[in-house]
């Protein structure tokens, strides 16, 4: 039983609930912005498991964005991986191979926060730095609705999974999300 009520509004009607890079990206992509709703949440409940329990969102409706650092020689590149909350990203195999890296791992929290301009626990694929691929699990792309971060811990975004798959630099990968 959810303990908190969710009141959603068009995302650009509530820019105070969006990280600056997210608001900027949505303003630049009006067709996407028309599909995205935002709701204020308790920042202490931003982590997926706590959020789903408190707000009555099913884990299969929630998608997590993880930032991966891929290394080849001295060069490090970054990518975002979107997987359902019921799965984890296959970083060491699929992501590493897809990015042509010798080694891939989750980016350090401080690095992900600094480079994305977003808060830890709220990082989202909307508004990430230019050049970062957005790898989307096929199950996320097929989801009728996906609840994702807004760039801050104090809100969440609701949008169709297909809209995530249409983000700039998005690539849908079968098998990106693997069982936990």
From TrEMBL:
This protein's record includes keyword Chaperone: no
Key words of the record: Aminoacyl-tRNA synthetase, Ligase
Source organism of the structure: Catenulispora acidiphila (strain DSM 44928 / JCM 14897 / NBRC 102108 / NRRL B-24433 / ID139908)
Signal sequence bounds: none
InterPro entries (UniProt xref): YbaK/aa-tRNA-synt-asso_dom_sf, YbaK/aa-tRNA-synth-assoc-dom
Molecular function as annotated in GO: aminoacyl-tRNA deacylase activity; aminoacyl-tRNA ligase activity
Ligase among keywords: yes
Pfam families: tRNA_edit (PF04073)
Top-level taxon of origin: Bacteria
Identification of the protein by name: YbaK/prolyl-tRNA synthetase associated region
Stretches assigned to the YbaK/aminoacyl-tRNA synthetase-associated domain: 43-165
């Amino acid at each position: 039983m959810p303990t908190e009520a969710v009141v959603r509004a068009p995302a650009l009607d509530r820019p105070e609930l969006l990280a600056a890079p997210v608001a900027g990206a949505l303003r630049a992509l009006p067709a996407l912005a028309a599909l995205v709703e935002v709701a204020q949440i308790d920042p202490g409940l931003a982590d997926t498991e706590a959020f789903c329990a408190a707000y009555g969102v099913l884990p299969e409706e929630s998608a997590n964005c993880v930032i991966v650092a891929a290394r080849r020689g001295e060069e490090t590149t970054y990518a975002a991986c979107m997987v359902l909350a019921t799965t984890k990203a296959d970083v060491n195999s699929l992501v590493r191979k897809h990015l042509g890296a010798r080694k891939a791992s989750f980016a350090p929290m401080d690095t992900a926060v600094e480079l994305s301009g977003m808060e830890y626990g709220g990082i989202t694929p909307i508004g990430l730095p230019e050049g970062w691929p957005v790898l989307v699990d096929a199950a996320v792309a097929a989801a009728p609705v996906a609840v994702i971060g807004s760039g801050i811990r104090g809100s969440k975004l609701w949008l169709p999974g297909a809209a995530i798959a249409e983000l700039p630099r998005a690539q849908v990968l079968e098998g990106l999300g693997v069982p936990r």
